[in-house]
Amino acid sequence: MIITVEENAEPNRIDEILRNLSEIGIDAYVSEYLGKKVIVIDKSMEKTVMERLSLMDGVERIIPIPYQFKLVSRLFKPENTIIKISDLIEIGNEPLFIIAGPCSVENREMMLHTARHVRAEGASALRGGAFKPRTSPYSFQGLGEEGLEILAEARSETGLPVVTEAMSIEQFDLVEKYADIVQIGARNMQNFPLLKRAARSRKPILLKRGLSATITEWLLSAEYIVSGGNPNVILCERGIRTFEQSTRNTLDLAAVALAKKESHLPVIVDPSHATGIRALVKPMAKAAVAAGSDGLIVEVHPDPNKALSDGPQSLTLDDFAQLMREIESIAKAVGRCLSRW
Amino acid sequence: MIITVEENAEPNRIDEILRNLSEIGIDAYVSEYLGKKVIVIDKSMEKTVMERLSLMDGVERIIPIPYQFKLVSRLFKPENTIIKISDLIEIGNEPLFIIAGPCSVENREMMLHTARHVRAEGASALRGGAFKPRTSPYSFQGLGEEGLEILAEARSETGLPVVTEAMSIEQFDLVEKYADIVQIGARNMQNFPLLKRAARSRKPILLKRGLSATITEWLLSAEYIVSGGNPNVILCERGIRTFEQSTRNTLDLAAVALAKKESHLPVIVDPSHATGIRALVKPMAKAAVAAGSDGLIVEVHPDPNKALSDGPQSLTLDDFAQLMREIESIAKAVGRCLSRW
Amino acid sequence: MIITVEENAEPNRIDEILRNLSEIGIDAYVSEYLGKKVIVIDKSMEKTVMERLSLMDGVERIIPIPYQFKLVSRLFKPENTIIKISDLIEIGNEPLFIIAGPCSVENREMMLHTARHVRAEGASALRGGAFKPRTSPYSFQGLGEEGLEILAEARSETGLPVVTEAMSIEQFDLVEKYADIVQIGARNMQNFPLLKRAARSRKPILLKRGLSATITEWLLSAEYIVSGGNPNVILCERGIRTFEQSTRNTLDLAAVALAKKESHLPVIVDPSHATGIRALVKPMAKAAVAAGSDGLIVEVHPDPNKALSDGPQSLTLDDFAQLMREIESIAKAVGRCLSRW
Amino acid sequence: MIITVEENAEPNRIDEILRNLSEIGIDAYVSEYLGKKVIVIDKSMEKTVMERLSLMDGVERIIPIPYQFKLVSRLFKPENTIIKISDLIEIGNEPLFIIAGPCSVENREMMLHTARHVRAEGASALRGGAFKPRTSPYSFQGLGEEGLEILAEARSETGLPVVTEAMSIEQFDLVEKYADIVQIGARNMQNFPLLKRAARSRKPILLKRGLSATITEWLLSAEYIVSGGNPNVILCERGIRTFEQSTRNTLDLAAVALAKKESHLPVIVDPSHATGIRALVKPMAKAAVAAGSDGLIVEVHPDPNKALSDGPQSLTLDDFAQLMREIESIAKAVGRCLSRW
Predict the structure, then answer these.
(1) Least packed by Cβ within 10 Å: which of A187, A208, C93, C323?
(2) Are residues D114 and D24 in the same domain?
(3) How confident is the model over A77-96, as pLDDT tens digits?
(4) Interface with C, mutate which of B29, B132, B135, B226 (most C CBs under 10 A)
(5) Is residue A268 within 8 Å of A99, Cβ to Cβ?
């Protein structure tokens, strides 16, 4: 349940409401959503109590929400959340938000070359990892801040907003300075201190679904960020871990449709990590758009065979150009379009 | 590896080839594919042995196939298999093959009513279970032969080919007489005696993927049918079992793209069982078509709230009409169309 | 809910009870359990209805069972079911029931050799597949009836009861003549026509849990057999399919403890298929006994490297001897023992 | 592959070896294990290259390791790692290491009460969360430093070493000051910055397996800690996420046996989180010990019904006393014992 507070309510009204709730043994959590105070209650309540509450001074509206997630629910906010990334680029609106780029920032040349190409083909943003989560300590761990500087240069040259990952609070402090969107990766979807740090940021957060996270858990991780003060969360389905091993993960497109149905947040799809196989990226990208995804995040590399990470699932520059053409006709069929810039 | 035998080879040539293989300790399996004798070998072979074999009388071609499945592989047959269902209806060709109807045949009225409606909206075939696999012995088990008779009547009236399930060899003998396509359900994907019975049938087989079957196992079950003499297998992805419980199963559309890539058999998708949620059937149906599916099998019921099984995932007649309109635009975007009849 | 009927009730009492239930829209299923008529109702009921029912002539007891499975529930029958296999051998009692033998019956010599050995080491029964469920049509499919004859000979010589699998109704008719316990394998746990056939048999049934079957589904498959007239079902946990690939399956020992808690049926464990790795069979066998398993089914082969199937998971004869010694001390620690014969 | 360096080798020998490797394009990682320099190479190498390397000055031994994990492998160190926790307590040796206590530190009274009780029953260490990873932002998040102080007091009074979790580098800095063993939870098993921080600690690390982590990934996370300088890692299996929902997770005891076989690190089991059901904790604890586990971590609460978290899976004080008695007889059967203090 969410109680929204009247805008001109006196400050002590909230305290009074909380005191009343406390007296009947109900914990409440005060948050702010788009400048408005809201009181979140994670408990069901008797009807008579609700009626009494609704009559209290300062109470604007009481919204029953039978899910664990509250502020990210469509019951709280029926209309889609649209996030402005730059003057020209939004996500959640009619144009699809297509993020493209290599898995890792490997060096300046490849990054700029890739950025120019994906910009020319109509991408909405640039991806590239500076801090890489790697299963083995002996694998390439990313260029760190040097990588962030290269991304910033690519943005200067192409105008593309930059999406890159942070894996800890320290990295977040740094990444936030460079990135337009900060990614929280699948392995950190339930890194709660990191979610709380993201909640205090003014940058939009790309929140990937964990390898074995339920849709409810995914939305609850988004709730951590939104209830902590940052309303701009982009959900990203990137495949879940199942018994099937012929693809890297199992892309769960029903999760996209369900998240769109139950939440007002934008949802995008990562067909590269979901499949791990170049030949499947295009069909899955098209399926994602048909399923209602608000965008894609796709790995593109000028020479995938030489990639320091994720080569087998990276598209070549030509593949990406073709993907954009094929996506366009699917987009039209579902009332969407590519970015217009 | 598959050895194809020259059409005019003398009958004893095959025996000779087998004798040669046997002498070097290699088991072989003789089959027939579209009237042509083929010898299947499930073992790798040294290059010199292959060269020697290729020079033997009667040997037409040696096709190395590094998969466990052989005859269903695209390496054996690069072009798509197109299955003729009736004079007007094929599957695997440009028009999508859309099967619609209730989960169970419940009675004559509802079946005929549904059949007329889905025919009018452009469905390619009619579904309806006469023998129902039910988790509990206390659930409705289907009408049996009475259900088959009702299906036959619906076909007479509408011209729609009929798809229905058999769960045992006995049921197969009966179902085969009534159905145009015999379904082998997810729970029977590895019912090998049933697969061997299906192999001896002249009716096309709709082979659903098992709840936890890998793509390779699914293709090997198809291989049982094809190597046993029935080339007409339609693969059907219907969702796999994973940790995610907010949908009935997890629809694995990458499996559709991968099966289409590795096999020449047609592949369709069941968005009803895959999701278990009416509101997700349409987006998943569209995603399936965008991913390259050759068709759909969709549960439609005139009054889902009163359905004896699977009500929550059944489309109403109106839902189905709308689905067909929405599918059409996606179909066009990927170079497909709806059935033209 | 189960209604037990008084033993000396007049035959028409049941019809009357059913008529009463039918009038208030409640379906009921009449079954017989150990010679006693029972009426099974798969629906919740208002308290007043229950009270009225309890006063009807012929009604002995009404047992509310809030699970889908009824007759196999401990709420219906609190005490353990003990199944007599031969004059000397029972399952479900204090002595553990240890089934040992090769995956497949390969030939007479190896079968007799293995049987003598496992008998000498204290095994309770002999396993060996005559009809083999194989993923590929090109793999060894078993010796069929010849294999059954060899098993019967091994029994004659050693006195060991024989456990072997049937995959279809036809095979069941044949296997039933030879076997002391008929196995229904994991892939057929939801082969409902086969379960119904097993229900009509007088032989005990070893029901393996399906690769991705929930515990409830497993118990419901047992319910098919018990409600159909055969009370002698032995449940067998053999590992489930998960994302983990370093073992063949994931042994779910909590399922054993939970099945023992919720059902009165005996439960045994197959550590060979569960792990697929010889070195893990012994620790998992011991863990199974510690968890409360009533027995084990273990693959043993005189020369695992030459086995036609499942070699890597088969114990050698020496391994088995050592397993029995190690099991014995665990058995004592949990108040069990090895078979005394 | 690991190259161990002679103890008295001149410092520049390592540089020379690295230079040689670099010249042939091989990356190497220098680490220290128990005071000895080691060079880790995550790549296979030709035999001739290995022979040449083995002749270089300073090279003591070359150990080929065909796994991704190296220093934690038994091929590197065949004997069990035994970790000294206090003067009286070790883990990995004959006595089982039993950690007991509540899920969360809730208040001083309950913590001291529980600590005294589990100490009296023979527990080896005390658990209790001060920082709690909670799926919902609206759930109790733990007492923070106040909780750590209470744990320290419980240690002072009982002598029990304290195990508690850190979820971020900042929390680690704090927890390290209070705890005897720092826990990295399942959700952080691949929080690589946190693993790197743990590698720089002198406290032993309890590394829980991730919800959907493979055994190899789990060992690679341990490798992060060991290769970064901290050899004292305790692995903890706590159940994995599967389709089965009647238990909270699926306890994977084969993973315990396999981890013990492939790694020299101690492995313990958490039957509380693995099952989520009080009645299953005891059978699974016994099964764990039978499977070769070096210990247990068990949730115990004086009044589980009032627990702020994980009540349904917590043992009462009496349950725990009984568990210890039952464990003892299993321990003896596998050549182990309870802590002797």
Answers:
(1) C93
(2) no
(3) 999 999 999 988 999 999 99
(4) B135
(5) yes
